């Protein structure tokens, strides 16, 4: 779907750097982008695929993750409104395959630009080069923190921190998280069995209440004793 005036307004709100970009840069973006809508559950890219487009998210959420040989998943990062995928940018700029998987977690609206067009913009326009460098810097810091957590962090503390952060953004009093043990394990790079055991420990302590597809956080979470 071609880009409309409303799309351009939403884009400038979500990506303030474009509002400071030269008029020619904004004109090229309008002329070469299109709007897409992707429902929850849509697979955007699989490991080994070539990246055909660069997406600028206006709404919704995307999960980028890796799958190990055992089938275990670990979330690398999530994308929300006003964000783009640095792995996609890297694949386009360097002409390499996508090294992970990406799936829509919440219905997405985005403007997409064909890969060859975006590659040319990064070569010609300082504003796009700075944007890609900023993406790389932000995500590199996040991935390094993830590696440190997986390699050195205690799983019980990581789970407590994960639930605390999710509870802060969840509705209800007490807050109710709509998630599964499998989803949490994938986010933390652990197994469902380990996560289920630690969640049960928290429930026995009275910190949470478990139900099918939900976790109710009843009290502030501290790390339970390690077994």
Write up what this structure looks like.
- This protein has about 230 residues and is of the alpha+beta class.
- It has 9 helices and 8 strands.
- Strands 1, 2, 3, 4 and 5 form a 5-stranded antiparallel β-sheet that branches. The protein has a 3-stranded antiparallel β-sheet with strand order 6-8-7.
- A hairpin with a 2-residue loop joins strand 7 (about 210) and strand 8 (about 215).
- The protein is elongated and about 60 Å long.
List keywords for this structure.
alpha+beta; five-stranded antiparallel beta sheet; three-stranded antiparallel beta sheet; 9 helices; 8 strands; elongated; disordered C terminus
Shape: elongated
Order of helices and strands: HHHEEEEHEHHHEHHEE
**Mean pLDDT figure:** 89
Uncertain spans, ≥5 residues at pLDDT below 50? 223-227
List strands and helices in order, with pairings.
Blueprint: H1 5-14, H2 16-19, H3 23-32, E1 34-38, E2 43-45, E3 53-67, E4 73-79, H4 86-94, E5 101-114, H5 115-124, H6 126-152, H7 155-169, E6 176-178, H8 181-188, H9 192-204, E7 208-211, E8 214-217
Helix pairs in contact: 5-6, 8-9
In short:
The chain is 47% helix and 24% strand. The strands form two sheets. Strands 1, 2, 3, 4 and 5 form a five-stranded antiparallel beta sheet that branches. Strands 6-8-7 form a three-stranded antiparallel beta sheet.
